[in-house]
Design brief:
Blueprint: H1 10-18, H2 27-38, E1 42-46, E2 49-52, H3 53-69, E3 77-80, H4 86-98, E4 101-104, H5 111-121, E5 125-129, E6 131-132, E7 135-136, H6 137-147, E8 153-157, E9 164-166, E10 183-188, E11 198-202, H7 203-216, E12 224-227, H8 234-238, H9 241-248, E13 251-254, H10 260-270, E14 274-277, H11 279-291, E15 301-305, H12 311-321, E16 324-331, E17 334-338, H13 347-350, E18 354-355, E19 361-365, E20 378-383, H14 395-401, E21 408-416, E22 422-427, E23 431-434, E24 437-440, H15 441-448, E25 454-464, E26 468-477, H16 485-494, E27 505-508, H17 522-527, E28 534-535
Parallel strand pairs: 1-13, 3-4, 3-5, 5-8, 8-9, 12-13, 12-14, 14-15, 15-16, 26-27
Antiparallel strand pairs: 1-2, 6-7, 10-11, 16-17, 17-18, 19-20, 20-21, 21-22, 23-24, 25-26, 27-28
The structure holds adenosine monophosphate.
Length: about 525
Amino acid sequence: MLDGCTPWPEDLAKRYRALGVWRGEPIGEALRKAARRFGPHTALVRGNRRITYAELDAWADRLAAGFAGHGIAPRERVVVQLPNVPEFAALCFALFRLGAIPVFALPAHRHSELRHLCELTGATVYIGPDTHRDFDHRALAEKLHAELPSLRSLFVVGEPSGNVKALPEAEPADFPAPDPSDVAFFLLSGGTTALPKLIPRTHDDYLYQSRAAASACELTRDDVYLAALPIGFNFAWGSPGLLGTLLTGGTAVLADDPTPETCFPLVEKENATVTALVPSLAQLWVEEAGWTGSNLGSLRLVQVGGARMKPEFVRSIGPALGCALQQVFGMAEGLLTFTREHGPAGHVLGTQGLPVSDEDELRIVGEGGAELSPGGIGELITRGPYTPRGYYRADDHNARVFTEDGFFRTGDLARLTEHGELVIEGRLKDMIIRGGDKISAGEVEAHLTEHPAVAAAAVIGVPDEFLGERTCAYVVARGTRPPTLAQLRELMHGRGVADYKLPDRLALVEALPLTPLGKVDKKALRAKEDIGEERAE
Ligand code: AMP
């Protein structure tokens, strides 16, 4: 396995193989098999472009040969930052075939995040769009290239310029298949630490996750999955997402953005049957569905997850969208739980469902780490065949967030029902979930304290009707001229931080409340009402 990654213990790996959970198949080969079975069937749709399984397979081969021609070798890391375009899928399959390792950056990431990803992984290649939502990714790529000698090649989907080349294609060739137990790609953790951690996902573990998720959604080749969320998210990539759809022979329709304005006409035109949304978007869809004339009748299942939903809202989703709701709890670190259509009473509306694999182990533990009696609320810890045993190159952090016997401490507060269903009750980790975006409080605080007029900063999520939470920064000013919210946002923007991380509110305080141990008491901050803060537009 790639250096810096933690393999599963050999006895468990043997067990997963013996059970057929891990099939010993690289992801690139899984596409090849799908192309043999479903060749002329449509695999991907984007606007007026329709790509069959056979075409996608051949395209991935040409790209693999093109990348190899540029000297991209097995295990090289390739930062991929693309919106929902077919090239994203094709070039990832090409890289999987070579055994090169995509690192999934999000479209909203900027210099700060991308530089971190390149440095942490030693990436030699960046692949992005030319421009996206008025942002020039080529200029960003050139800047990274100038700063980082290891970043050798830049490719673009769209117009090349300067050092940034068009995606290379060449006559297909055979490449030695990568070891299926090795890392296929890196996902980003929502993160509670200053900068995002990377989660190594293997061919074996991720193919299993996507297949198990597809089976829990009862996907068939007649399904049309609408990829509304960015496909670089674990939810839309493999839960079951695009990958699960392709493994089943269905069609994945790529949406430019997840809004009802974009997606409703797509549902209608392509007869989409399944999609996945985060709660804030589901809310938008529910509101819009009430009064637009769009026909969403083809939808049979909407997955909603990634953040907490209010119970009253949960009830409205199915009736408003005219389809079944599936609640999803999941994380890029692995574990996925889904509600199932024929679960016990209260299952779909009142729980986050059951794990997608019988091999998933879930425990609820108290502060000392002891397992709680059934029904008790504590931290969810988990391990299983698609929950990796460590973050990449993060030994100290791993020692804290994995137990000695390999359970991942999720930082989520939960309980299990008598039927084994998971119910999420809250969060221990220092993270804000703003819409579907995860923001590490520590990362924002580290930026804010760089401002000369900031002596100390603590960031928390405050409830928000629409986004679930917004980011509020409590700041102790230094000197006589306290900073304004606009100045702090400008500071972070200027430091190349993704926009969704900029604080929405600012509250100036004399001092931050401290716990008896001298740490910032975020519970006390959360309990504050009427904070007299300044809000962004
Ligand atoms: P990510 O890896 O970005 O998908 O983030 C995973 C985290 O999102 C989990 O650890 C939870 O804190 C949160 N999360 C995901 N799904 C749900 C859900 N259905 N309800 C509440 N929180 C959720």
